[in-house]
Structures are given as structure tokens and as C-alpha cells.
Amino acid sequence: MNYWFNPGRTVILASGSPRRKQILSLMGFSFNTIVPTEFNENLYLDSDHLNESLQKLASIKARTVSEANPEALVLSADTVVVNDSVILGKPAGYEDAFKMLKSLSGKKHKVVTGVALLCAEENFCKTTVVSTSVFFRSISDQEIEHYLHFPEYQDKAGSYAIQGKAMIFIDRIDGCFYNVVGLPVSGTISLFNEFIFRKEPSNV
Question: What are the average pLDDT values for consecutive 10-residue runs of the chain, which has 204 residues?
């Protein structure tokens, strides 16, 4: 297959997320996937300094993969849902998911993603943060219970997948749809462009 987007180096997606794999493929990239070493992400997340902590977290994930692949361009991302200044991660179980969805009903919340692109060999590391506002319509307890019969909520921040059955909960969004899925397209392309069009070191 011919890929139209070629940054000139091997691209590695430091994520096990099938949604991020799909988005990056749709964007036209050829890439490999390496899942970074697991660690307690909550130690790095700070609701008072969310943008900075998400960028740091994405950078840490990228660096863990870049250590063994210094010549590659490593892309990493971390997405959270923020409701009334409270960070909603992945649910611990059914009851936790129910409480999350109940808290989102009839309200606006934000989905925020920190993205990092790193190439150790080129001493290149850039990050960005993208935020999308999501508006839920009012949803009943019965609708939530019915949705939670399906497993798609289990590994999702905020306990829902906007591209899945939870689409019926959405009134509207303001911002990048793909950011809510897990990888903001425009923000990601901007990072790759920064690498491609960076100034080469002067030999003078």
C-alpha cells in the first residue's frame, strides 16, 4: 500500500488503542505499534495543571518506547474526560461507569488529549494539547443501564465511546471529533509538520 504521508523516518505509535491505530491509518501513515510499559498515570495527572500534566504524561510514554528506537518518530497520546473540574478516567466497573454517565447527563464536559512526538536521534520532542467540548442530552437511568450491557465502555475514559453506541447520548460537540475518539487529527499533523519542516542545524 502507498502512503501519502511520509515524514522520512519510521513512525511508531506508542499505544495499544485500536481507535488511535485506526485514526492514524486513516490519516495516511505507515507505522508500527509498541505498547509502552504500564505505570500509574494518576500520579502524573493534575486537574489544576491539566494541560501540562497531559503533555508530560504523553512525553513519558513516548520516551519509554524511544529508548530502544532512537531513530524512530514516536507518537504518544493520553486522553481524559473532565467534568466539573473532576478528571474521569476509565471506570473501575459497572457501578463506577454508571455514576460517570449519570454525572454527564444533560451537561457539557470536556475531552482533553495530550499528544507528544519524539525522535531521540534528532533531539526532537514536541507536544500539544487539544480540547473538545461534548454536550450530552439528558439520559435516563434505563438508557444508561442498557448501554452498560455492552462492553465498549470498559476501557474508555468517561465510560463511553462517542464512535460507538454512546453516539445516541450526544447532543452536539464543539471541536475535533477524533480528539474525543482518542487522537486529534489537526494537532497530530501539526506536530509531524514541525518535524518535517524543522530548521536543519547549520554547518557554518
Answer: 66 96 94 89 83 96 96 96 93 97 98 97 96 98 98 94 97 98 96 85 41
Q: In whole angstroms, how far apart are CA 138 and each of 1, 105, 158, 161, 170?
A: 45, 5, 16, 17, 9
- pLDDT value of residue 203: 42
Is 81 domain-assigned?
yes
Coil, helix or strand at residue 170: strand
Closest Cα partner for 37 from 65, 8, 69? 65
Boundaries of domain holding 51: 11-196
Q: Nearest CA to 74 among 113, 111, 24?
A: 24
| Cα–Cα distances in angstroms (integers) from residue 128 to residues 16, 49, 64, 84, in the given order | 20, 14, 18, 23
- For residue 113, how far is the Cα from the chain centroid? 5
CATH number at residue 49: 3.90.950.10
Spatial distance between the Cα atoms of 43 and 132, rounded to a whole number of angstroms: 24
The CA distance from 106 to 134, in Å, is 10
How many structural domains is the chain composed of? 1
Q: What pLDDT is stored for residue 32 in this prediction?
A: 97
Contact residues for 104 (Cβ-Cβ < 8 A; gap 6+): 81, 83, 136, 158, 160, 169
Active site residues: 78
* Cβ-Cβ contacts under 8 Å for 50 (sequence gap 6 or more): 80, 82, 87, 112
